[in-house]
Amino acid sequence: MIILGIGGLLSDAAAAVLKDGELVAAVEESKLVRRRTHWGNLDEMPEHAIATCLELAGAKPEQVDAVAVVRPIPQSDFHLKLRARFPNSRIIVVEHHLAHAASAYYCSPYDSATVLTLDHSGDFRCGSRWQATGAQISLEHEQYAPDSLGDLYGRVCELLGLESSVDEHKVQWNSVAGDDRFKQLFLDILHVTDAGVRIDRGFFSTERVSNGGFGPRFFARLGLEDGAPIPEALRPHLAAGVQRAMEDAVIQLAGSGENLCLAGGLGLNALLVSALENRSGYRNVFVQPVAGNAGTALGAVLEAWHGVYKHAERVPLTTLSLGPSFNADDIKRVLENCKLRFRYMVTTDEVVESAVAQLNDHKIVAWMHGRMEFGSRALGNRSILASPLNPYSTENLNSFIKHREPFRKFAASVPAELCAEYFEVGPNARYLATVGRVKPAYREQFAAATLAGDMVRVHTVDREENPLYWKLLHAAGKATGLPVLYNTSFNLFGEPLVCTPRDAVRSFYSSGIDAMFVGNFSLHK
């Protein structure tokens, strides 16, 4: 059986394919077309993502048994378009938050769980709570717009001069430098009760379209004139206020129990995930790592598999390496077409040895191997790497390559079996979905990557999931005594993660990256 899932049609459009109970492909449209996909047209489908996923699955449109699409109830012409393209398919419409919930629970390792979905809005809903057992998910409670945690967080983005639905991660990381002076203000705005969140609209102005729509009552609490620019010194404290109030609100909404699963846009907030891991009333917490709208494509195929076709067998999420890969001929063709000088290495041992030599020489290395990751985070297949022993790694990566704010730190990748030597972190670190702590003996060593003294983004690497990257980390450890590399996503200029060899070449030669390893090919400046 082949099930095609289509999600994120209004933003972050993506497709996924489940083939005979195995997740074989998932990719976002933006990575293929090299631009953000915020269309506003529910009838426009992610054509490139659909075609790529079917190709990866080895399937033709007429072989697709079901198309599960996440959107409001479609008009008949939309059904007709899908039926014309997939003539033998059953068309299944999956509600937005059900798709989030399915992606969170069915990908989790739990046989039963409470499932929480939280986002800006979807089908006029901004959150939901579910109870899941076996292969069934039952709705317990819904949260409706405009009483939205995601909307409030986005408004603070705008208040700080950033873009809502794009720059929330900047608010998150900036919050680490702030204190709790505005936390109570945001708790007063949120007004969390057992019935859910009720946003106090008295803190907003219905006539104001700038400053996130905040009104005189809000600015008075800040000690500022109504509509005044936010002083630079207050920005991290405002970020901290909304971040910590949001964490407290979600912990209260989640309640308590044995297992908690999380998805929706707020699930991309690593500080929130860490707060749930450490302060909630749950023993175990799992966040679906592609928690935003792109992940609803994954939820759609899983809901079809379990909810519609009633399969009890779970579909484990063993990897996010679900996108395209490129063989040696593909890569060589691009490099020669671009008239580039390169070296081809016969074995992966040579590749690893050469990369370690570059890293030990304090070079910044682009690393592109295997299948592209699904989601916004680089997990060792489309990464930019640096050695923690390089005293200028943070400055070089932030200022001269990524061109981004200094408060945005990089992840520390470490073999999973060695993680406990250096860091304290939960299992969600496997997909870079949480934050951890550096152990006291290594805080000076990792100072360039830490926030607030000892907080760090940790990426644990399993040998079975990514053997080449795991091997590189161990080789770095053998050479230096430290089996850890700083890891950030291989992308520039606000573009999505690089997908093809040509994308990689363009980014490499448009940046201060020193060396690039694409498959068994290396390029140096």
Q: Can you tell me the CATH class of the largest domain?
A: Alpha Beta
Helix content: 25-40%
Question: Helix tally?
Answer: 17
User: Any guess at the CATH architecture of the largest domain?
Assistant: Alpha-Beta Complex
Strand content: 15-25%
Spatial sequence of strands, sheet with the most strands:
13-23-22-14-15-21-16-20
Q: Low-confidence segments, ≥5 residues, pLDDT <50?
A: none
How far the N terminus sits from the C terminus, by CA atoms, comes to 48 Å
Radius of gyration: 23 Å
Mean pLDDT: 94
How many E-type strands?
A: 23
Topology-level CATH name of the largest domain = DHBP synthase
Question: How is this structure best summarized?
Answer:
This protein has helices spanning 29-33, 47-57, 76-85, 96-106, 149-159, 168-174, 183-190, 216-222, 235-254, 270-279, 296-308, 328-337, 348-360, 393-402, 419-422, 467-480, 501-508; strands at 2-7, 14-19, 22-28, 66-70, 90-94, 112-122, 125-133, 136-144, 192-193, 196-197, 256-263, 281-287, 343-344, 365-368, 382-386, 411-415, 423-424, 436-438, 455-456, 458-461, 485-489, 515-518, 521-524.
